[in-house]
Amino acid sequence: MAQNGQQEMFVRNATGLVRELSAFDAFNLVFSAVLIPVGISQTLGFAPAAFQGSNVMVAYVLAAIVMFFFGWVYLSLTVAMPRSGGDYVWVSRMLHPSVGFVTNVSLTFVFLTWISFNFTTMLSYFAPAAFYVWGASSSTVAAISSPTSQIIVSTVLTILFAFLMSMGTRRVAVYMRVLFWIVWIGMGIWIVGLLITGHGAFATHFQQTTGVSATQIMTIAQQNGYHATSGINWGMTFLAMIYAFQTLTGFQWTGYFAGEIRNVRRTATTSILGGLVAAALLYIIGSGLVYKAVGYNFFNALTYMGFHDASKLPASVQYVLPAMTKYLVLPALLKAYVALSFLLAILWWTPTGFMLGTRNLFAWAFDRMMPQSLADVSERFHTPVKAIFTIAVVVEIINFLNVYAGLSSFLVNIIAVMSLAFIFVSLAATVFPYTRKDLFDSAPSLVRWKLAGIPFVSIAGVIGILTWVFVLVVAFKASQFGLQVTTKAMVEAFAVPVLAIIYYVIMAAVRKSQHIDMSATFRALPPE
């Protein structure tokens, strides 16, 4: 009878997914999600210009300390409930099914927009930087950055990655291992280049290459509102943490594919905490070395002009971080490889984005919140093929909206959606020991650890709530961040969560009419 009841609650008694991912594979997935080559380019490109006087290196130090607690939220819940779907499973079982569904749909939307946005960023930001380092003509740069090129390349990549994902988790893991080494050999060379390049040598190479001196750049920037500083503006550095929080996010996402990891409880610990430590160190070291080689005020002046009005810079000057590789004391061949590594980093991370989206969709279908067929798993490849190609269709729609409807201009608003979702995940962790005492008491000792008699997961949850409330407040209140509080921008950002609420209400009514007890489904954990 119990078995029949289980079949009524879920699509079947086993997911059909296979635990094929090793500890390194799990680390590689979450480490790629942090996407350091893109993240450090974004943070160093935006934070100093938006928050003048901020120190990005210090912002990362502070953010990493705080993010440890948010990481503990995901680690504890992954270890306690190691099921594919991550926070969808946790929040729906600890707060309410509707909250879990809407939270996870919102985060899935964020992941899928990142896939599409990174495709276009690869062509509009990293490809021109690489071509600059390689010495390609401006016409080549213009051609690759055109909307037609962006939609063609984005579409082709979406199709190729959908087929790769459908061929099995093991093949995906092999692909990602290869890209890991290609990207991080290049990033290692970049770090060495920054280390051996003194500020004087950088300024000399910059002037020899562009015909413009650092002094001239400083003068242009100051004429346009830039103010050179000689110390850390702590207020601005705290505000700049919003970028550090955003770009560190990803290290904790082992829970989304927990159903496919070998030795999941041990692997979750090493991948989540190891991912945070590795990412934090590399962000801190990378940003510190950029300041050392380029010079704090010179770098900030360049990015300030690039952020506010790049047209006032001389045509020969490039202000984006990957393009500055051209001015390092490195052989030309190594510079070319570094530029390629920045570019390929996006192709390294993309399978992770697909994995997050498809496993969440699979989890919804397994709980009967989506059509049952989306939970089908290929007997040959052990992957949810229908879910994968459904996600690919959604990504292609976002590609079109991104290229032709200007969705990318409102992507900064997505951080508000992400912050709200993370607040609910943190709230679920806070109440976990009290609302699901049965699961908490049976969880491994790491989850049940207490500090001063209080479950540490609850302490971490409270700090997680405060962290993402801070991000949300800064995003809305600090005009420099660029969040657009307009009707169109808010509708585009929050349309998906609103639609998810409507969909949940309808689906709950449909299942009730079919005499399926959804409340029983969400009291139980899905089978492995």
| Terminal-residue CA separation | 19 Å
* Uncertain runs: 1-7
The arrangement of helices and strands along the chain is HHHHHHHHHHHHHHHHHHHEEHHH
> How is the quaternary structure best described?
single chain
What is the count of DSSP helices, taking H or I runs of 4+ residues?
Answer: 22
Q: Got a strand count?
A: 2
Q: What spatial form do the alpha-carbon principal axes imply? A: globular
Protein structure class: mainly alpha
Name the strands of the widest sheet in spatial order. 1-2
Q: Per DSSP, what share of the residues sits in E-state strands of 2 or more residues?
A: under 5%
Average pLDDT rating = 90
User: Quick one: biggest sheet?
Assistant: 2 strands, antiparallel
Radius of gyration from the CA trace? 23 Å
Helix content: over 70%
Please, could you describe this protein's structure?
- The protein has 22 helices and two strands.
- The protein is mainly alpha-helical and 528 residues long.
- Strand 1 and strand 2 form a beta hairpin.
- The relative contact order is 0.20.
- Residues 1-7 have low confidence and may be disordered.
Structural descriptors:
single chain, 528 residues, mainly alpha, two-stranded antiparallel sheet, 22 helices, 2 strands, 1% strand, globular, disordered N terminus
Write the layout of secondary structure elements.
Elements: H1 2-9, H2 23-34, H3 36-50, H4 56-80, H5 87-94, H6 97-134, H7 138-145, H8 147-166, H9 169-196, H10 199-210, H11 214-223, H12 234-248, H13 264-294, H14 296-309, H15 332-366, H16 385-404, H17 414-435, H18 437-442, H19 445-448, E1 450-451, E2 454-455, H20 456-477, H21 487-513, H22 518-523
Antiparallel strand pairs: 1-2
Helix pairs in contact: 2-9, 2-13, 2-15, 3-12, 3-13, 3-14, 4-12, 4-13, 4-20, 5-6, 5-17, 6-7, 6-8, 6-15, 6-16, 6-17, 6-21, 8-15, 8-16, 9-13, 9-15, 11-14, 12-20, 13-14, 15-16, 17-20
